[in-house]
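Appendix B. Chain record.
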Amino acid sequence: MAGKSRGEQRIGLLNGFAAYGMWGLFPLFFPLLKPAGATEVLAHRMVWSLAVVAAVLLALRRWRWAGELLRQPRRLALIAVAAAVIAVNWGVYIWAVNNDRVVEASLGYFINPLVTIALGVVLLKERLRPVQWAAVGIGVVAVLVLAVGYGRPPWISLALAFSFGTYGLIKKKVNLGGLESLAAETAIQFLPALGYLLWLGARGDSTFTSEGAGHAALLATTGVVTALPLVCFGAAAIRVPLSTIGLLQYLAPVFQFLCGVLYFHEAMPPERWAGFGLVWLALTLLTWDALRTAHRTARTLREAAKAPAKAPAAAGGTGTADVSGGTAGVAVGTAGAGRGADDASA
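C-alpha cells predicted for this chain:
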C-alpha cells in the first residue's frame, strides 16, 4: 500500500465507508419488502443478484475464470458449499430483520471475528497469542451472559457468526475474486431459487405479481443491493491497508445495532448491555493486538530493508511474526475473508 497516493487511499476509504455503511443499513431495506416472506425475499435475492453480477462481469469482459473453474471439480464443490452456507446466512438475517431481531442479528457480526479465530484454531490448527485467548474467553462469557438475558442462547447471532465464519474459511481456500465468487455462488443458487419462485407463483402465493409494480421493483433491486456494496468493497480493498479494512468492518454491526435500538426500538435490558459490553471489550483487545502485531511486523521489514547484510536473520524474524499474526489478520480483516463481508454480509 506504500505506493498508493493519498488520493487513491481517500477513494478507497470512501468506498469502504460506503460498502460497510450500506451493509449496516440493510435493516432499513428488508422491511420494505413485506408482505413477502423471508424465503421469497431470499429467492429473489439469489435470482436478481446473478442477473446484476452477470451484467457487470459481461461489461468488464471478465469471463475467463468461469471456464477454469468448471475444469476444477474440487474448487467447484467448495463454491457449492459456500453457496449453501451463505444462503443460510442471508436467510437467517432477512428473517431476523423482519421479525424484530435486528439487535440480535448485529451481535452475530460483532462476534464473527471471535468465531473466525475459534474456527482457525480448531480447523487450521492456528496458534493464538495470550491476548487473543483472552478475547475469545471474554466472548464465550459474553454469549453466556446474553443467553441468561434472552432466556435462551442467542441462536440468531450464533447462526450468523458461524455461517459467515465458515463461509470466510471456504472463500480463503477457493481464492476467487469477490464479483466472480458471487457470480459462481448465485449461479448455483439460481435454479433452486427460480424453481421456488415459479412454484410460489403457481400456488398464487407470490407477492411479486400480486402487490403491484412498486413491490416487484423493490424485490428486483435486491440484486443491486447485494452487488453494489461488493463493488465498493472491492474498490476499497485494493486501495487501503488490510488493517483499515478490518477496522471499517465494525461499521456494519454498529449501524445495525443503532438501527435496532434507535429506529426499531428493540429492548436492551441491563443484562443485554452487559453481554454486548463484553463483546465490545473482546473486539477492542483483538483490534489492539492485531494493530500492535502489524506495527511490529512493519518495523521488522523496515529494519531488514535498511540492513541487507542481515537479511536472512531479519527474514526469519518476519516469518515468526507472520505465523503468530495469522489469526489476528483473519480476526481484524475478517472482511477480506468473505466479501469478505463482501459477497455477503447480511
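Further analysis of this model is presented in Appendix C.
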